[in-house]
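TICKET #2291
ISSUE: user wants both folds in one file
ATTACHMENT 1:
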Amino acid sequence: MSRTRRRTATLPLLLALTLPLAACGDDGDGGDQKLQVLAASSLTDVFTELGRQFEADHDGVDVAFSFGSSTDLAEQAADGAPGDVLATADRTSMSVAQDAGAVTDPATFATNVLVIVTPPDNPAGITSLADLDGATWVRCADEVPCGRVALAVLDDAGIDAQPASLEEDVRSTLDKVTSGEADAGLVYASDAVAAGDAVETIPIDGAESEPTSYSIAALDQSEDASLAQEWVDLVTGAEGRAALKDAGFSLP
């Protein structure tokens, strides 16, 4: 599917359209401070885990997340939407925010590669990219990081099979497979790990030659730059790297 973005929207409208925040805490009482993290949807599980750890280490702090397409989140940050940290699934998306002066000196903290996922019983008998021709399969839209990687991987393999649909982010792609609406989907290795027994994972030959690199930075518009930097330090430090590795990401 194609989507047309309106970059001329007024800020109030932009904020109204900002993706819903997912609070990481379980008690619902609310803290004295809120750290708002805008992050690629493929980071949902590992960042939620790190958020609980961050809250435990910072009394009175709630970590709230807005997970979604890196491109959308970077554009929101570039347009001045509120937030403290931006984490994207590729450098191209981060450059949107950086070029707008919303971030400085983003750091690369993880990498990922594309895999094929199918329902556990693999009804279409998918074993490689070549088997996508004739199957009902899905991938991310061209303008988001997982879509850009998919296009490169498919081009490298000489595959011109057309997807049944183009999804807004990698988790939407994964959902189409786990719900039984698609025979296969192209997602990141970490999303396949997160799905567990709900999918069968098929490595893609040569996918390692088209990795995506994740970038993170504190937003210049953050109301608490020190707290935002502490989150960046957690993600890029030893504890964050261990959590990312366990979640199926590779480390730079």
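ATTACHMENT 2:
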Amino acid sequence: MRRIYFNLFSITLFLLVISSCKKDIVKPGTGTAALTIVNCVAGNSKLLTNFNGTDLSGVKFYGQLNYVDPEWYLFTTNYSGQQKLGLYLAADTSLNSNPLFNLKLNLPVNTMHTLFLMGTPQAPDTLFTKNKLPYHLPADSTMGIRFVNISEGGNPVSVNLIGQADRYAIANLPYKGATEFKHYTVRSTVDSYTFEFRDRITDELLGSYTFDEVNASGSVETGGNKWRNNNFTLALFGTQANKQVLMVMEYFR
């Protein structure tokens, strides 16, 4: 375990690789807050974080944010809830540099949030969500999935669940739209779930993602089913010409 200490808080990082995405596992308790940052800025490979905002004097950059590689942060130790965050292009970190993002986040204790970074270096944009994570009783064998549209340009999208009579999981999701988490069964009777993001007007396929081996036995804790009792986000991101779907693990029990 690696700890990075700042003026008023520390960040504890744990690493887990699932579906080619690195996740930092956190379990917020009294006096803590958790934040996931997802770098989907088009044309950018890496951002560096400065938890002093724009003050670069004597600052060492922490938390390299690779493209579409979510990172988790746990804020602890006299944490007050208000947090400065400057995000800099990796090639532009001199004392005279301006951040690509200069943010002040409200992270109340005992909460979990996700910060999506999107747009382009010339026109950056953000979506900040509070994660109201459902609890899954072990006996229920369910998973939670929410859907997010952070792909700028174009029409709203629909999210379709392949093989269902009512194909719409979500009928209309505009840019910067984020749904609540929906429950899906994780049992031996279900082989997989495939979700398609489509243009709501033209029905053009924009991207898809498959949750495979849903019928696997066990749970992630026992080295078995990686979906059971966990919560995930499917996010449509990218430019008008190149849209993709990213799976983000929001919580690990």
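RESOLUTION: both attachments delivered.
EXTRA DETAIL ON ATTACHMENT 2: The chain has a mean pLDDT of 80.
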